[in-house]
């Protein structure tokens, strides 16, 4: 059975009018399965399906969460971008473990990811940065992300300075800005069901392979 037909089988099991996670899903690669759920969220018209909660912690275990945007995903992991001086980056540099939670309420679906974090290469960061609009690239130079800001005028002054600095040139990748990749150790798929008897399927990395188990809702 092909990957495509396996995924269709996994998605087409209905119970009481609510699609669940069939046993066929347990044989899929979780990254492929995530891709199908992500595409379904896009096709359904969910606003910004790439928005995801990112949780980090300090060395002493104090948690912090915020929304970021998923920019790419492949067999290596999930990638987002930030200023390396931001709070999230500071925490990731000291404790390179993180969690993601996608929530697509209209589909009653969540995907939870946990894993180790690493910086992506400067070449990968440059490729994405170059695809952004000029205004966003200027903004990356202007913002001292997470540092105290005296007033809005200060930020606007820094934007004008960056605009003048790169008026005649392309806007280069700032040395303090780039991407992180979360290499998943676990990926949990959560599908809402009637009477709160939800489906939960967890993939856990074991070497180069994945094992699966079901969890009570």
Ordered list of secondary-structure elements with their pairings:
Elements: H1 3-11, E1 14-15, E2 18-19, H2 30-44, E3 51-57, E4 63-69, E5 72-74, E6 77-83, H3 87-94, E7 97-104, E8 109-119, H4 122-131, H5 134-142, H6 152-165, E9 177-191, E10 199-206, E11 209-214
Antiparallel strand pairs: 1-2, 3-4, 3-7, 5-6, 6-9, 7-8, 8-9, 9-10, 10-11
What distinguishing features does this structure have?
217 residues; Pnp Oxidase, Chain A; 9-stranded antiparallel sheet; disordered N terminus
If you had to describe this structure to a student in words, what would you say it looks like?
The protein has 217 residues and is an alpha+beta fold. The strands form two sheets. Strands 3, 4, 5, 6, 7, 8, 9, 10 and 11 form a nine-stranded antiparallel beta sheet that branches. Strands 1-2 form a two-stranded antiparallel ribbon. Strand 3 and strand 4 form a beta hairpin. The longest helix has 15 residues. The protein is elongated, with a radius of gyration of 20 Å. The N terminus is likely disordered.
Shape: elongated
CATH superfamily: Electron Transport, Fmn-binding Protein, Chain A
State the CATH architecture.
Roll
Tell me, what is the CATH class? Mainly Beta
CATH topology: Pnp Oxidase, Chain A
Count of DSSP E strands? 11
Average residue pLDDT:
93
Largest sheet: 9 strands, antiparallel
Compact summary:
This protein is 30% helix and 35% strand. It has helices spanning 3-11, 30-44, 87-94, 122-131, 134-142, 152-165, and strands at residues 14-15, 18-19, 51-57, 63-69, 72-74, 77-83, 97-104, 109-119, 177-191, 199-206, 209-214.
